Amino acid sequence: MDKIYKALAEIVGEEFVSNRKEELYIYSRDSGLSEPRFPDYVVMPRTVEEVQKIIQLANKEKIHVVPAGASLSLSGLTIPQKGGIVIDMRRMDRILELNRKGRYVVLEAGVTQGKLQAFLEENAPDLCHSLPEAPPSATVVGNLVIHGQGNLTQAYGFNSSMISGLEVVLPNGEICRIGSCSLSPYWFSIEPLPYLAGLFLGWFGTTGVITKVGLRLYPKKKLRDVELFVLEDPKLVSEVIYRVTHTEMAEDITTVAQPYPLMFQGTIMIGIYLTGDTEEELEFKRRLIWSSLSDLIKAKEGGFMALTPDMKVGLLEKPMSSLTRSADILKGGGFVYCGAIIPIEKFPEALKKLFEIAERNGVTFAHTGRVIGRGHCMMFAFAYPFNRADLESMEKAKRALFDSYVATLEIGGVPWKPGAEEQKLILERMDKNSVELIKRIRELLDPNKIMNPGNWEVEL
Amino acid sequence: MQSQNFVLKFQKELCETCPTYDCLTRCQYLNIDTKTAEREIRKLLNGEDSFVLHECVTCYACEEYCKRGNHPFYLITDLQEKKGILPAPKPIVKQWVNLGIPDKKDIPHFYGAEEPVISLCLFPDFVNSIRGKLFQGVSIVLGRHFFCNLVYLHFGKPSLIRERLPKIIENIASHGFKEVVFFHDECYSTFTSYADAYEIKVPFRPVHLFEYLYNRLKELKDEIKPLNVRIAYQRNCSTRLTPQKEHYLDKIFELLGVERVERKYDRENALCCGGIIRGLQKLDLFVEVQKKNVEDMKNAKAEYCVFNCPACYSSLAERVRKEGIKPIMLHQLCKLALREEPR
Q1: Nearest CA in chain B to A260
Q2: What region does B71 belong to: left with phi over 0, alpha with psi -120 to 50, or beta?
Q3: Whole-angstrom Cα distance, residue B37 to residue A389?
Q4: Chain B contacts of A301, Cβ < 8 Å?
Q5: Per-residue pLDDT reduced to its tens digit, A227-272
Q6: A286: nearest CA in chain B?
Q7: pLDDT for res A329
């Protein structure tokens, strides 16, 4: 038995460590199109102390470490680029505290979206968290560390800005708490202390392993409804978003543009989600939104689509399972996307690029998007389906995806959760001092360069 | 075949000599007195612009209000198109236009389909309800190759109906059917009223679902257990084109043992379900019309709201349910009386 395997088994117990090929296979890939790479070990810790010991071992043995949730980023962020130990956090799945009046929960890094959603439905039905359009098996922390978005993102910004406290195992093995929880038993706020949380969010596990998180919760209204505003002219999208966000009546605002079914071809649909505790509240909000768009309607430039009850059920599902079904237009079981974070006024340019890229690469597409904050920016997904049984289809989608990352940067956007290759594109274009700062922070926190190598790797 | 080959059969003199101008004065959405009606009708007859062309909610009711057999509504829609007046926003119209184009899932020919045959138009969700004693031995056809396209009357695109209809008729006829039962009232009205008004030949007999249900219920009379409930009936727009089959409804209700409540907005005075008013983005009117309609059902103490049209059901069912009235499609009400649906 090799000594690292033995040491890991001593930390977590033999049941929760593996170096068997068939188990490593699972961790060598994700559902996207990134090249598979095998780890040497996978380990499933139960406590922060076990994570600490794994990191200490990795430092001692100079072996790489890749923290992973459900590995659903689609951009290969938990694929071990240079082998090493994958730390699967999903055994750390306890919800440790619910502070109902303070509207936050404290949870471990392996808690899934489904578990938190079910927990809140049972224990705090008037509260909710910002739920991303991800499978229920996706982890809450996995979404936070990639600056994910959810149904409350329009109202409150990126999901990562809803964090109220962190516990992190640093690359040197120290356990560190960030926010009010570093001073008191309460996990209510990151602010007003120095904003250390920024050292761990968006870094894809290169600066430490998040083990606990305080997460803000928000009022969950009893009723929820949706309207779809339809446009032909992409140039009007930002205007519609501006007006609707100005009313402050929408919970979530999304965009959809896709060639299939044929009915949708040549139009853009803006999903406007409304919530209320009573029918009257919903009606009040709906009327304000209608009114905000009345002149566009009068000019015949846009209008609200008639939604059948079945369509509404699909659109109101949380998370929306129909989204993955409609993204998988080819019915080949796969789709990838480049989530471009762009200013809303760049929507027409992004859509034009999407059409061009799809045509150039001979692929079809399905765009979805989500407004972030009060229109401060939006996530614009360049999404391409592929057939897993067809290598050519996969290659085409891969090329289209790469082109989309380039296009995102060309229009002044920032790619969301870029894979290792695409991170290089970003670093090449980034302000040199910013790149240098990234490098210095990583050197400072991770002198042995053990943390998720290949990601945010600066070669100056 | 080009749409311009088909010209509306319209007798101008019937309108010119009309003593009532019911088509406009009875309109429930435009407040028009006799004097205004006379003036606006003259404009329409002369092909001139009129506020009617811009404000019409396309409820089709004027076709029924006209007791002289003219086609005021078809005239309005033809003029809207001629003058480029879009009743709905452009992208909404585009989506509806695209909706009628067949895609890969649509089957043009149902081999082995035998009479009696029922066309489900574009409502595949109802396939599973076309079962049981009521529909024993019935073949189903559906999809865009059977879609009547009449909906474009709402969107200022009637020429699209005339452009697509001959092909649809040819497709249905190619099956050799002598009679086709139309589940969707709009299809029945297309192949009867609209086709006749534009002299489009239909080589099979369109049968309305009411007629089919009535005849079948008579055959199953001994198995009916009277429902003894009070129902409100929601008429749909295209029933205005073919009021001649409405008598079947009362006969059906009698067989089922249900009481059609007396209410203000029933029969010729029926209100639109609101769906198309919303589609045309007359949003305040949509809320008002639905409210008035449902209040009326409530005041009449209706227990069920019976629908003939799936689109009306889509538009109004949730609203009536919230008021404690059970929404149900007519054929499902029949199955209820035959104890084939859980009550």
Answers
A1: B103
A2: beta
A3: 66
A4: 89-91
A5: 999 999 999 999 999 999 999 999 999 999 999 889 999 999 999 9
A6: B283
A7: 74
> Does the structure show a pLDDT above 80 at A186?
yes
Q: Match 């762009």 to its residue by tokens.
A: A342
Give the pLDDT of chain B (343 residues) as one tens digit per residue. 445 579 999 999 999 999 999 999 999 999 999 999 999 999 999 999 999 999 999 999 999 999 999 999 999 999 999 999 999 999 999 999 999 999 888 999 999 999 999 999 999 999 999 999 999 999 999 999 999 999 999 999 999 999 999 999 999 999 999 999 999 999 999 999 999 999 999 999 999 999 999 999 999 999 999 999 999 999 999 999 999 999 999 999 999 999 999 999 999 999 999 999 999 999 999 999 999 999 999 999 999 999 999 999 999 999 999 999 999 999 999 999 999 977 6
Q: What is the pLDDT of residue B1?
A: 45
Q: Find which of B154, B272, B273, B283 to mutate to test the A interface (most A CBs within 10 Å of its CB).
A: B283
Q: To probe the interface with B, which of A226, A227, A230 has the most B CB atoms within 10 Å?
A: A230
Judging contacts by C-beta atoms under 8 Å, the chain B residues touching residue A304 are 278, 281, 283
A267 touches chain B (CB under 8 A): yes
Distance (Å, whole) CA A133 – CA B136: 44
**Contact A304/B86, CB-based, under 8 Å?**
no
The predicted complex's ipTM stands at 0.94
Q: Are A64 and A82 in contact (CB under 8 A)?
A: yes
Option in B86, B95, B101 nearest A267 (CB): B95
Contact B91 A306 (CB under 8 A): no
Backbone φ and ψ of B259, nearest 5° = -105, 120
What does the DSSP 8-state code read for residue B268?
Answer: G
C-alpha span between B305 and B232 (Å, rounded): 5
Q: What are the DSSP calls for A112-179, one per residue?
A: BHHHHHHHHHHH-TTEE----SS-TTSBHHHHHHTT---TTHHHH-SGGGGEEEEEEE-TTS-EEEES
**Calpha distance A352→A349 (Å, rounded):** 5
Calculate the alpha carbon distances from A74 to A368, A418, B306 in Å: 16, 9, 48
Chain B residues inside the 8 Å CB shell of A300: 86, 88-90
Q: Between chains, do B315 and A266 touch, taking CB under 8 Å as contact? A: no
- The single residue listed with the structure tokens 């578990």 is A115
